[in-house]
Amino acid sequence: MWKLKNEGIPVLNIFYEDSANTRLISIMSTLHKREEREYLQYLVKDTGERKIEVFIYEANIIHGYALKMLCEYCASIKIKVHVQKKTLHSYLLRCGIPSLLISRGSIQKEMNVPITQTIDAKDSAEQKIDSVTSEMEFTDELVDRFTEVVYSKYGFDFREYQKNSLKRRLQIFIRKGRIQDFHHIYEEVLENRENFENLMIDFPIRTTEFFRDSNVFKIIRNKILPYLDSYPSIKIWCSGCSTGEEPYSLAILLGEAGMLDKTHIYATDLNPNVVEEARNGMYGIETIQKGSENYTNSGGKNHFNDYFDIIGKCARIKHQYRNRILFFQHSLTNTGILNEFQLILCRNVLMYFNNSLQNKVLKLFNNSMDLSAFLLLGKSEGIQNNDGKDIFFAYDRENRIYRKKEILTGKENWLL
Ligand SMILES: C[S@@+](CC[C@H](N)C(=O)[O-])C[C@H]1O[C@@H](n2cnc3c(N)ncnc32)[C@H](O)[C@@H]1O
Asked: Which listed residue, of 89, 150, 167, 277, carries a Cα 20 to 30 Å from 125's Cα?
């Protein structure tokens, strides 16, 4: 059995143990501390003939620089990565880093590590979801109770999401074995933070692409940016940014138009995991290939790969684009205004909300835009079936691009 030692650096959550052939490195953090990353680099570099096994515990995500290091070392030397959290496991795979998932039981047995339980003991009988109510039948009432408990226990507010979409997600999780059935949802998910985090990996659908719906980016490139260029400084909000491909696509366009330096992009999402991934700006090669096609279809003339540093099987968006984007967690269910923007993108997010929440969010956007700003929604979203038509008008209906009506006169600001 391996024993842990920490070289007398107690503040660092990194430990190692050498045997004749192997160096075993255990990491108990997200590596957001610079000293930890430096220590890891030192441990990985200086191993002599030994192969390396890295075990990462407790972290759902790791810092971009550490990820880059792993990518480089995975490509050049023998290194095996084991992770405890499913979230991190699927992220590493997407970045082209092969990793093995280890179970909590096997960790404790092999490593003799006391793992802290993060289960929140708080509970109340009335929150419990009836075990009588399963049979794969997700009634509206059951979904309501599920979302109420998720909200009160974890603070994520899905209470005004489309019920059918929530039911479909829950059904998929049962099919994938993430949860056993609705009988067990309380015990398996709501009482156990780790299981809840696993569910959150993709509970809110996170599908995205660079230059997704390339036609929309063509219009941003050819019509919207030339208009916005008249502003001395520009603020853009990319809401529901998922893993960052959308705000980085904007940053690339702004760079090509020579407008990046005068623009601030706020990129926000409900899901803290995708926000961290977005901030890291690391993508697998397949993502880049698809992005490259879309980029060309949007009228891009450069080599898409030139916007990235290629590291092993992974690509990292260049620093000058990462640098211009402020990523942070924010839920559209909170109605506070963030700033006054000239362009807001919120694509493929509203479709998951019920009408009442759509109306609140459209109002929030309206209050967060300057008079001549643009709002971009997703292909299957719009303002026809909600109150959006009272406060916005279609600039380009087909591509779901809207502008603000002058509220007092109801006028459409075509001349602006
Ligand atoms: C399908 S993705 C769309 C990503 C990107 N906008 C695009 O069109 O490619 C939807 C994103 O919206 C986020 N989302 C869902 N509910 C949200 C909320 N209440 N506030 C902010 N983001 C939310 C999800 O976490 C997910 O990353």
From this structure: 167
